[in-house]
Amino acid sequence: MTYRKIIFVSEENIFTSPIAEALMKKRLLEEKDEKTQVSSCGMVVLFPEPANPKGVAIAKSRGLNIEEHRAREISTDMFGTDVLVLTMSEKIKASIYEKYKNAVNIYTIKEFVGLEGDVEAPYGKGMKEYGEVYTQLEKLVSMITEKIK
Question: Which CATH entry fits the domain spanning 5-148: 3.40.109.10, 3.40.50.2300, 2.140.10.10, 1.10.287.180?
Answer without folding.
Answer: 3.40.50.2300
